[in-house]
Amino acid sequence: MIESYEKAGKIVSKVRNDASKLINDGLAIIDLVEFVENEIIKEGGGIAFPCNVSVNEITAHYTSPPNDENIITSGDLVKLDLGAEVNGYIADSAITIIAKGGNDLSDDETNKNESLIEASDAALNVAISTVKAGVEVKDIGAEVEKTITDLGFSPIRNLAGHSLEQWNLHSGLSIPNVKDNRGEKLEEGDVLAIEPFVTDGVGYVVDIPTVNIFKFLKNRSFRLQYTKKVLNHIKRNYPYLPFSFRWLTEEFNSNRLNNSIRELSDSMAIYPYHTLREKSGAWVAQKEHTVIVEKEGCYITTV
């Protein structure tokens, strides 16, 4: 088990570092997403969830649809969030990069964005230094919140890190980015994805209509044979971990698939992960590592 977590972490670290070098003015988001997903497979892992590339005020859960025409431009604050699995054991990591190129942002805007990234780094480091067996998760959130607010920014209050288990991306524990009343304690051997989000906005995210990521929930009966076929494909290929609409278009026609996905979502056969946007439209930075809780600290698998 530990060996699988370690291997997944090494894959994620290498692919994250390689992909971050590609984030420049003019890069198509779909090219970055597909590079990450293909490299994870080349390195011997499975894709734990569709690669997320969330730009500026878009905070999480954006992956490219088929034929995505969105382009990264100079000065964009690009959050790259990726995950790999080995034998079902998951590594999850994220980094924020300012896209290079002919920067049109003012010096003040650039400095602010650099400070957002530094604040997410600092918050993650503090959180990791707090982790050990017996610590209450609310204490981690308190340290993250204090670090971010002391630097003049706000944490995203309604996003949290999460524990990981075999074939389970979001298992029992939530790791808050603010102090709350959760009394759960960490146990030796727990695996956590810790991910502070930092903004100069109001510090909340809201759903937007865009949905490109889904997760299988349960079997349902459908009248339309095409919808049944789509659901059977999902059950067979993605029974545990999130999947992308884009992946399904390798097997199904996009127009007919849209109707089936809508029907599957409405019936809660699959869960739709809406793209998330910072409520006030402010830009957001994110940093994430996966750690394994130890008696007197933790081991970072994705460093």
What does this structure look like?
With 303 residues, this protein is an alpha+beta fold. The protein has one domain (2-207, 276-300): Alpha-Beta Complex (Creatine Amidinohydrolase). It has 7 helices and 16 strands. It has helices spanning 2-20, 29-42, 107-130, 137-150, 225-237, 245-248, 254-266; strands spanning 46-47, 52-55, 58-60, 77-86, 89-98, 154-155, 160-164, 174-176, 191-194, 197-199, 205-216, 243-244, 270-278, 284-286, 289-294, 297-300. The strands form 4 sheets. The protein has a 5-stranded antiparallel β-sheet with strand order 8-7-9-15-16. Strands 1, 2, 4 and 5 form a 4-stranded antiparallel β-sheet that branches. A 4-stranded antiparallel β-sheet has the order 3-13-11-12. Strand 15 (289-294) and strand 16 form a beta hairpin. The mean pLDDT is 96.
